[in-house]
Amino acid sequence: MTITIYHNPACATSRNTLAIIRQSGEEPEVIEYLKTPPARERLVELIAAMGMTPRELLREKGTPYAELGLADPKWSDDEILDFMLAHPILINRPIVVSPLGVVLARPSEKVLDILPNPDIGAFTKEDGEVVFDASGKRAG
């Protein structure tokens, strides 16, 4: 089964998502989307598969979102896509693709919805948040 993650290694959520995928027994194709952004057609496919709009996929924090005035509703979906392609950091991450679906894995455990083996046992995020305890039960 092929799983792909559009990954930013500088992002803790993306690193946690990648760790969950690997803990499930899968070795995904890792695309560092800041180095290799998806083509426009692929980005449109991913957004549609997630049931989102381009605006819903925009990332604000740590991006040129404010300086580009992207909060203004005047921008069309096509224009937002243009901004994302010109500035890939505007694409929220991580996006994970599997034969079972496509998700924006925020929070990272959302990836479990599309993994063939979501029973990953104990898992603690980098920040110490326990997702699954030692018995594999959902924490919290």
Keywords:
globular; alpha+beta; 4-stranded mixed beta sheet; 140 residues; two-stranded antiparallel sheet; single chain; 6 strands
What does this structure look like?
The chain is globular and about 50 Å long. The chain has four helices and six strands. The strands form two sheets. The chain has a four-stranded mixed beta sheet with strand order 2-1-3-4, covered by helices on one side. The protein is an alpha+beta fold. The relative contact order is 0.21.
What is the radius of gyration computed over CA atoms, rounded to a whole number of angstroms?
16 Å
Poorly predicted segments: none
Oligomeric form of this entry?
single chain
- Strand line-up across the major sheet: 2-1-3-4
Largest beta sheet, briefly?
4 strands, mixed
Report, as a whole number of angstroms, the end-to-end distance. Answer: 31 Å
- Quickly count the helices: 4
Estimate percent helicity.
25-40%
Total number of β-strand segments? Answer: 6
- What is the approximate shape? globular
Q: Output mean pLDDT.
A: 94
Percentage of residues in DSSP E strands:
15-25%
SSE sequence, one letter per element: EHEHHHEEEE
Structural class: alpha+beta
